[in-house]
Amino acid sequence: MPGLGTTYGRGGATTAPSDVVNSDVVLIMGSNMAENHPVGFQWVMEAKEKHGTHIIHVDPRFSRTSAVANTWVSLRAGSDILFLGGLINYVLQNNLDFREYVLHYTNASVIIPEGFKDAEELDGLFSGWDPATKQYDNTTWLYQGVKQDESSSDRHDNSQSGGHSQHGVDSSVDLSTYEQDLTLQHPRCVWQLMKRHFARYTPDMVARYCGVTKDAFLNVAKIYTSASGPDKTGAICYALGWTQHSSGVQMIRCAAMLQLLLGNMGRPGGGILALRGHASIQGSTDIPTLFDSLPGYISMPKFGYSSVDLASFIKANKPKTGFWNNIDKYIVSMLKAFYGEHATAENDYGFNWLPRLTGDHSHQAYFLDMMDGKMDGLFVMGQNPAVAAPNSGLERRALGKLKWLVVREMVETETATFWRDSPEVTSGELKMADIQTEVFLLPAAGHVEKDGTFTNTQRLLQWREKAIDPPGDARSENWFIYHIWERVVEKAKADPRPRNQGLLALQMNYTITGPRREPEAPEILQEINGYTTADRKLLKTFGELTADGSTTCGCWIYTGVYPEAGRNRANERDPKDEYGHGWGWAWPADRRVLYNRASAKPDGTPWSERKKLVWWDEAEKKWTGKDVPDFTATKPPTYVPPPGAEGDAALAGDKPYILHADGMGWLWVPVGLNDGPLPTHYEPLESPIANPMYAGQQANPVGLRRTRPGNEYATSPDTRFPYVLTTYRLTEHHTAGGMSRTLSHLAELQPEIFCEISMELADELKIEHGEWVTLVTARGAIEAHALSTSRMKPLTIDGKRVHQIGVPFHWGYNGLVKGDIGNDLIAISEEPNVRIMETKGLLCNLLVGRRSTNVERLKEYHSIAEGKTA
Amino acid sequence: MNKTSAFLTDATICIGCKACEVACKEWNEVPEDGLLWTGFSYDNTQALGASTWRHVMFLEQPATAGPQQVDMENPFRWIFLSDVCKHCVHSGCLEGCPTGAIVRTDVGSVLVQKDICNGCGYCVVSCPFGVVDKRHDDGRAFKCTFCYDRQSAGMMPACAKTCPTQSIKFGEREDLRAEGIARVQELKARGYADAQLYNPEETSVGGTHAMFVILGKPDAYNLPPAPEVPTVYLKSAWTSALLAAMVVIAVVCAAFLF
User: Fold this and answer.
1) I want to staple B94 with a disulfide (CB 3.0 to 4.6 A). Which of A292, B79, B102, B156 is the partner?
2) Which residues of chain B are within 8 Å of residue A45 when distances are taken between CB atoms?
3) Distance (Å, rounded) from C-alpha A17 to C-alpha A458?
């Protein structure tokens, strides 16, 4: 999310999958869209078949997406920044950018102060690096001329944050006071810095280290960059193939920059589709299940000076200019939704009842804490970490250190039976009697058995009605959370210690109906939408929110979904136009294409008739068009902010990126990223080659390896692990398999685990097609059928043969079809901005035959590998 | 001829998601058909049968034509096609059925009535496409019903309804036939010289209610290039039998005479 968030201001997909029918070219990279988003992919097929859109797929594997793409290009897993940097360099060297767009709508012309040193100058490190803390101080990345407030002392401490709320906001600097050179000639303007930074990303370099032919790369460069200018647009689709890398955020940044350079943002058929892997993943970041984020992308307060009280928090998070200037209204209204009448001006609206971040509490980090015996209990809802999590072997062992574990599920997942059926127990490594964890398996309702919304890829909220009651004791999440709250509060009443005050103040004023005492789901959506505190009048826009407690709003970006009593816009199913207005409701304010002010020229007229979307109507004195303007509707294109203006009023009429303090799209990210203002290539944490760009920096310097016994890494390269490993999903299964391996008509489609290898590797290792092989990494060993196929292309990297092996991770030890767990091979690692693990590019070994059941097998495998290569 | 319904399944639009297989099984309550991993690309369904009424094929093959740019040393393509009962215009299974369990419906499809089928199996050997099959634990013959229940209620078959890319089209047979011919012309114009419509009208089958747009030869898709309804062999079979009988009679008579 910070990849898009810092570049454009919001972390969500900027358009809808259906908008690709307006694209001239679609680049799918870091995604196997046809397999993992087959419903959304219908629009790609329609674009290709009916509109002649050229579909490009760049991927390590020739997948079902490649099969129907016009162009498929292979790629070495984890070399994406080299490839994308190559595309950026191709644009810069050949002046293929959309210059008028770049000049007006991006920060290309902004000047960076002299103190900045590029990674190209410092062998892989940007200026501001502190070797002691292994973190950057971003002072030298700021614009020349910005005013800084040094009183915010913990600005540069990233140790507590995860960055999920990062959209490039830093209240301690006034980014509206930049200096610029509109001729782009100043040697330290962003344009020139970019040009120098990407100069080494040449087609030869790409061909040499990405495993593509130079011709294939140049062909992609030519086709994709043709989708630019007033009359053409191109879209980029990505998914976990980018995010699950140790430099994933910067891969997305590359794509985001490319779209700005080509002028493809905010326009029909442009944009970036951050494809969400299953229902409501977008929703689970909007109203987050993340440790570091509050609803509506408000940062979770950190322990320390900047969050000592509400005023300090607002001061630290309220920039002078741009839309985030309203954050006080959003957080106060949110606290009113949490604490109701207990939230008053006198007690800072209960701000100090919110927990504080004291460190890294991401999934990866708390499982390591669990392993160290620092956690007593865990609720697992909608997740199956025993199969789905990185280094799942380690995580299963960690579950055994808990005192209690609650699993709420529709089926008995591997997480619920780890103490009985896990490979650690069945192999004798752990004894059932030694696992003291008390496990509670509680039945959960399925999605047709409860009311509520999904928020999908295109930020679209769609309500669904309950079709049937859940069976037996199965209950909805709403029911579960409500009733556990009721019971815990009842206990807390008897114990009025200060620590319980927040709990006792928490409000859940919903109507409880039916024999099962279910909270009314529409009332929850109304609370999320927001209303006036005094008379519960529903709000129509977030513009109505106030900072004095007179409004209550659970999530400010959702305001407008329930604008009046009896009108749930998420439940509307009457599409009125090609953008689908009338079908569901998209945040914010039903805007379907974000930043759509950029679909018009600076003067407010459309760039072209073919690509018109939103424009200024001089007669009506307002923005109009096919979409709801993502802009203040009455702010004319000629608007110049008066001196001293704040918030949105401080942004000129030709500044479409209204969430940013300067209103521009950020080719250069001055604030908000932990690993550099520009993307630069590092190798994955495990790589078959040394980083060709920097001798001094092999991998992302800020990334965390979390090395410890059981979470070890191969060296780069490592003779024990000569092959590149990449994991992925198949259409036929749902992530960890709980919803697909338990149903015969899904289980039979992909009944057993396999790994995909090239014909050449099969010949080399004398592997028969279909026979069992064992895959070994520094963390684990699993067995799988060998599927040798032409779809896996052997690569030549810097003159050396490199084989890539693909492993789907859907199987486990429960269900109708069973198999080894692909994620046992993966390391617990953390990307520096969002702390996601690297699953897409690691190293492994491949041995013929089934996996040994010996407890000491991993040691044996590692020594075999050493012996073989010694 | 009455207006009759048909499928047009287009291999050049299919993304191999198998949603048709799943929707078919869910709607028609078709049981599991084995949990065996085959290693045949992503195809673990293997073939149409009593408990598989839609089957998505996965063909990994050298590309023989077409504009697709694939960054490999040798031309390569991966084709998906959702196979289904052909609902032949002249149907072998129907003609072979001695009990009247198999009937031609008002929508032109061929339906096995499960309450009448006695499991004799004549239809299984009479189908030129190898579609009809007996369920071993049950004994009766089963195959695609063309969602006759859905069609009777004005709905399209489950597989076509669920197909995300409209690779499976459902409609009036003559319209889809024309659409198939036009689609093949369009594909040829785009460089797919080996595109063709599979609808064996020149044979005794007389065409099908499930037509396919394919690339390359039908054989690769397990579609017989020249399927015949077994009853076309009746005349020659009976003639041979008659001749044989006459010879036997003649020999027997001759034994008395001589």
Assistant:
1) B102
2) 13, 15, 165
3) 7
